[in-house]
Model the fold of this input.
Amino acid sequence: MERLRDHLLETGYTIDGVRDRLGVVAASALAREELVPALRETAADDPMAALIRLWWLGATVPAARLAPEVLESELVRVEGDQVCATVHLQPWETGGYVVSDRKVRPGDPSLRSDHVVGAGGASANLAQLVTRREVRRALDLGTGCGVQVLHLDRRAEDIVATDVNPRAVELARLSWRLSGVHDVDARVGSTFDPVEGELFDLVISNPPFVISPGGELTYRETGADGDAFCRELVRRTPAYLNPGGQAHFLANWLHVEHEDWRDRVGGWLGETGCDAWVVQRDVQDPAEYVELWLRDAAVQGTPGYAEHYDRWLSWFDERKVRGIGFGWITMRRTDTLDPVVRVEQLTHQVALPVGDYVDGVLDAIAAAHRVRFLDSAHLRTVEGLLDERVGLPGAEDPMRIVLRQTQGLRRSREVGTVEAALAGVCDGELALGPLLNVIAELVGDGEILHTDAIRPLIAEGYFQL
Ligand SMILES: C[S@@+](CC[C@H](N)C(=O)[O-])C[C@H]1O[C@@H](n2cnc3c(N)ncnc32)[C@H](O)[C@@H]1O
Done:
């Protein structure tokens, strides 16, 4: 593995190397799962083209085009003078490599139930959400191809990675060896079973969150009813967190008729005693959702497609499901008697990676909820805040004032003249109570805004304590 790794690096089989070798058109087509442009670009007889064809495109390559390090690895099958890959091996953004099962494409045989999925968009989403704070013990639950561990390396002293699928753990170990990541404690077992009685500073999971009638594909679904797997994951997490420990999950949840999704997901967290922040990034209707996951397993175009689609939709109908939410769940064990859970929808572009500032987001939500006497609090306007005004030409007062963050979650919010004035003068010098008194004399109708009216602006990061 070490020799193979050196060979991959020497050949330039890295994210940038592959992108440069393929060019923009073929790389974009590949992102849409269209192979033809990439096959054309890699028809030439050079070592880099051979690696891309073999391990990224899954094409057969003449043995004469491959180095001994490749031919002698456990990751190919040699048939006469031709070689094909037994795995998908891709460079990853951390600089390492990810080994998974070969990608399934339209026309391929149906997936084996213990298929190990490669790193993709969801993996990258979780990786960018996770706190950048260094921790002592971290748990990656449902490690799959092991990609999250590549991100945790050097940020956690001890890493435990678990998966219910033994093949996943086997392939994850190859990913780590090829990436030069050592000493990962990998264990096979379901949810928290392999770490019973242990505590972590950080728990992360890109879990099998797909909500479906069956639990046939281990990499994405469990057979739990509806969104019960994610609910139980959240409910059980506090028992495995050290005080102050944090958890970051991707999740899906149901939108059921006559129920607010915020109450549903907030309810999961309400009983945990943790501070929590839930963000819905997208919602799909049941048909979009079924199509997405049938496409993901390359079921489209197969004889059973319509029947499968119909069965899945009936299952949603029986449960009065009107939509499926996709999002993030972040939890922090605070051991207070008064935890706070914030549930919201944010579908706009936020600054990435969220992990750079996610701790601050949780701090702000907690501070806005728990600081008792805001009158004596010293606030600061967050850096990079813009004040946008819209009004009729020549009018003394604007019709609308919006405060807009240019960093972090890039929120925007319509405010009154008092809050806008506060944003202009809040530099941490004067306490909030006296500041609001002065502002009331200068702007508005002289009525003093209650300091509690500023809490939402603190929770949303317009003002910092
Ligand atoms: C969506 S994949 C995530 C893989 C990888 N962590 C990533 O971020 O790309 C979910 C993983 O959870 C595993 N899994 C499924 N059911 C599980 C369970 N009950 N307990 C632990 N892991 C499970 C699957 O085998 C799969 O590897």
User: Anything to note?
Assistant: The first strand starts at residue 61 and ends at 62. The two ends are 51 Å apart (CA to CA). The mean pLDDT is 95. Residues 117, 119, 123, 126, 141-145, 147-148, 162-165, 168, 190-191, 206-208, 218-220, 222 surround S-adenosylmethionine (CB under 6 Å).
